[in-house]
Amino acid sequence: MPRSKRAKIVSLTKTDSKGLDGKKNLINEIQKGVESYGYIWVFSVENSRNTYLKDLRSSMKTSRFFFGKNKVMAKALGNDSETELRDNLSKISERLSGDVGLLFTNTGPKEIKSHFDGYRELDYARAGNRATFDVVVESGEVKRGPSEESFPNNMEPQLRKLGMPTSLKKGKIVLDSDYTICKQGQILTPEQAQLLKLFWVQMAEFHINLLCYWHNDEFVEVESTEKKDDAMESD
C-alpha cells in the first residue's frame, strides 16, 4: 500500500477575504478527492467552452473535475515535499499553470486518454484565436454556409460595419470584388471573428490536452511518444 502522509492544515491567511469560504471548500474537496480517487490528472483546455465542459463532465459522472485558482488548487495538494498530502503530489502542483484543471478518477490512463482523444467539438473562433485556413467571399451576391444561403438584406449595414465593402442591389447584398475575411495563421480581430460567425465558418476546436497524472505516489508526464503511450497502457 502507498504510504500516507499526515493530513495537512492549509493556511489561507495570505488570500483575500472575498471568496474565502469558496477557497476553503475547494481545498477541502480536492483533499477529499486525494483519498477517494486513484488517479489525479492535470489537463489543459483548448478553446474552452462552458457547454462542452458541462457535457464532458456529464459523460464522466464517476470522476470529478476541478477548476479554480491554480495557486489554491496547488496549496490543497501541497507545494513541496514538506507540505504535499502524498508523495510526489507537489509535482502535480508544479504543473498548475495557465488554463488548466484537475481530474480525479479511478479509470485507468488508457481509457481516459481514449475518451479525451475522442471528445472534440468544432465551434466559432474568437478574437485572439489564430485562423486555421483562408476564408474568401467571392464577388457577386453574398451567401453563406454549405447551402449558399443568401443573407437577409437588412444585415447589409452590419456586414459593412464589420469591414466588408458590401452594397444593396435589387434587394440583394453584393460585393463588387472578392473579399478576404482572414488568412491562415492570422490572429483574428473582433470584426473578423464576428464575420466568421455570420458566415457560419467554424475554425475553433474544443478539446482537452492531458499533461500528466499521479497514481500510487508516482508522477507520470504524458507525452505524444510511442514510449509514453506504452507506459500508460501497461500501468
TrEMBL record:
Gene Ontology cellular-component annotations: cytoplasm; nucleolus; preribosome, large subunit precursor
Keywords: Cytoplasm, Nucleus, Ribosome biogenesis
A single MF term (Gene Ontology): RNA binding
Family matches, as Gene3D superfamilies: 3.30.70.1730, 3.90.105.20
Large ribosomal subunit protein uL10-like insertion domain location: 125-200
Signal sequence, start to end: none
Domain of life of the organism encoding this protein: Eukaryota
Main location: cytoplasm
GO biological process: nuclear-transcribed mRNA catabolic process; ribosomal large subunit assembly; rRNA processing
Keyword Cytoplasm: yes
Record's keyword annotation contains Transcription: no
Subcellular localization: Cytoplasm; Nucleus, Nucleolus
Transmembrane annotation, as ranges: none
Similarity annotation: Belongs to the universal ribosomal protein uL10 family.
Entry-linked PANTHER family: MRNA TURNOVER PROTEIN 4 HOMOLOG (PTHR45841:SF1), MRNA TURNOVER PROTEIN 4 MRTO4 (PTHR45841)
Function comment: Component of the ribosome assembly machinery. Nuclear paralog of the ribosomal protein P0, it binds pre-60S subunits at an early stage of assembly in the nucleolus, and is replaced by P0 in cytoplasmic pre-60S subunits and mature 80S ribosomes.
Subunit annotation: Associates with the pre-60S ribosomal particle.
Protein name (record): Ribosome assembly factor mrt4
Organism the protein comes from: Mycoemilia scoparia
Gene that encodes the chain: MRT4
